[in-house]
Amino acid sequence: MPKNKYLFPLILVISLFFLWAFLHNINPILIPHLKKACQLSDTQSSFIDASVYLAYFVIAIPAGLFMHKYGYKRGIILGLILYAIGAILFVPAASERNYTFFLVALFVIASGATFLEAIANPYIAGLGDKDTSARRLNFAQSFNGVGSFIAPIIGGQVILSGIEHTPGELKKMSATGLASYLQSEANTVKIPYLIIAGGVIVLIILFLFTHIPEVKEDDSAVDTHTPGTDFSIKVLKHRHLSMAVLAQFFYVGAQVGVGSFFIRYAKYVAGTSEKNAAFMWGSIAMVGFMVGRFVGTFLMKYINPARLLSFYAAMNILLILGALNTKGDVALYSILTVPFFMSIMYPTIFALGIKGLGKETKIASSFLVMSIIGGGVAPLLMGLISDWTGSIQNAYVIPCICFVVVLYFGLKGHKIIHL
Fold it and tell me: Cα–chain-centroid distance for residue 406?
């Protein structure tokens, strides 16, 4: 463990892991909530994911360059400032009940989270004794997992009102009554996001007045989280890397799509209320995601990672096929089981993609970070299918197709071909 002089800086940096986990896992709450408050179609509501993942795509490289030029501490403070500004912007967005304003606020928050995620991982690894870096990173990642299941549970209780009117009931309301109801729905995000902003501002103050030791980067170390400065598309000549970028694009698309529309899906196939669906997603699906990581890590001692990835992808294909063709609890729990088998996919694809790249590892990591833009594309396609067919259940064919691509990568795409 780190020496005493590193303990408080370590605690502060670890707190950042919770912030970006909260951002990503509150979206399944915001999507049905803003769909109701702003009277959106499923396609329009999918722009919530698109705005977040577009920020990651656009900001990933600038965040890495900023860190290398100005250091970790300034990068963290800038990321926190952006995160706080975005959270505060939720208040006027709610007051105006302006969906575009909400999307801008989310983009700003996600831009801040991109800085934090690009910086926190290598900083934790380099802060203190190199022999205990793995222990520090695993400990820090546990806070990411905590944010993953707390966000939908807390968000479902404090943001979702539980008041669900049918289209017919909304049409019977007077113009004044409808406007009042929609505004009351929009207003529920104000206090939660002001609290978030307040907490982030406290972190900014703590970072400003705390000595955060800079750490020297080890050029020989594999850095799988921070974009490099030597950005060149030539690295994609390695077939296993280019296939990993493709697989990561589809995997993140599947991960985001499965969760983003779950509350709508649960209502459609099983009549589950929005609050209960949010609780189920946090307490069952996201806990399963965490458990799956531990189980997968253990199994990799005995099973080749690519083979295990293929098996997990095949299981998710079968689960989603079941979810597409059944109703009630069978359909519901099929989707709730999917995150368990998603758990190992991101890090496994990442590791297989950068295998054997040597000095090109950092730039390869940049492309793999940018590939998470898939999280903004898949939900958009799901929204379009739902609106076209009138069934959110049909939209889950998109994650199914995504897992087929992951399966191919696990079976063949990961193999290194020497040209």
Answer: 18
Is 374 within 8 Å of 54 (Cβ atoms)? Answer: no
Whether the Cβ atoms of residue 332 and residue 396 lie closer than 8 Å to each other = no
Burial class (CB in 10 A: 0-12, 13-18, 19+), 4: exposed
- Which whole-number Å values give the CA distances from 12 to 73, 98, 368, in the listed order? 11, 34, 27
Which amino acid, 354?
A: I
Q: 221-249: buried (b, 16+ CB within 10 Å) or exposed (e) per residue?
A: eebbbbbbeeeeeebeebebbbbbbbbbb
What residue type is 408 in one-letter code? Answer: Y
Could you write out the DSSP letters of every residue in 83-115? HHHHHHHHHHHHHHT-HHHHHHHHHHHHHHHHH
Nearest to 28 by CA among 376, 271, 273, 277: 277
- pLDDT tens, position by position, 379-395: 999 999 999 999 999 99
Q: For the chain, what is the total number of helices (H) and then of strands (E)?
A: 19, 0
pTM of the model: 0.79
Phi, psi values for residue 127, rounded to 5° = -90, 100
Quote the pLDDT of residue 2. 47
First-to-last CA distance in the chain? 44
**Can you give the pLDDT at residue 6?**
66
Per the listing, tokens 């294909």 go with 317
Judged by DSSP in three states, 12 sits in helix
**pLDDT per position as a tens digit, 215-265:** 555 544 444 444 444 556 776 777 888 899 999 999 999 999 999 899 999
**DSSP assignment letter at 354:** S
pLDDT digit string (tens) for 37-65?
999 998 999 899 899 989 988 887 788 77
C-alpha 303/C-alpha 318 separation (Å) is: 21
Place of tokens 């083979």: 307
Q: How many Å separate Cα 146 from the centre of its chain?
A: 13
Query: pLDDT by residue (tens digit) across 270-315?
Result: 999 988 998 999 899 989 988 888 888 788 888 888 999 999 999 9
d(CA 35, CA 46): 9
